[in-house]
Amino acid sequence: MHNSFASTGRGHGTDLALVAGLLGFALDDTIIFLA
């Protein structure tokens, strides 16, 4: 992750979003929010 994502990504859930995307989860999948 680069620029602003490098410093704020974890707090904004970017790390979860990247992993969920790689695993093929849908954008509105509720399991993402349970992590």
From TrEMBL:
Gene3D superfamilies: D-3-phosphoglycerate dehydrogenase, domain 3 (3.30.1330.90)
InterPro entries: ASB_dom_sf
Record protein name field: L-serine deaminase
Organism of provenance: Desulfofundulus luciae
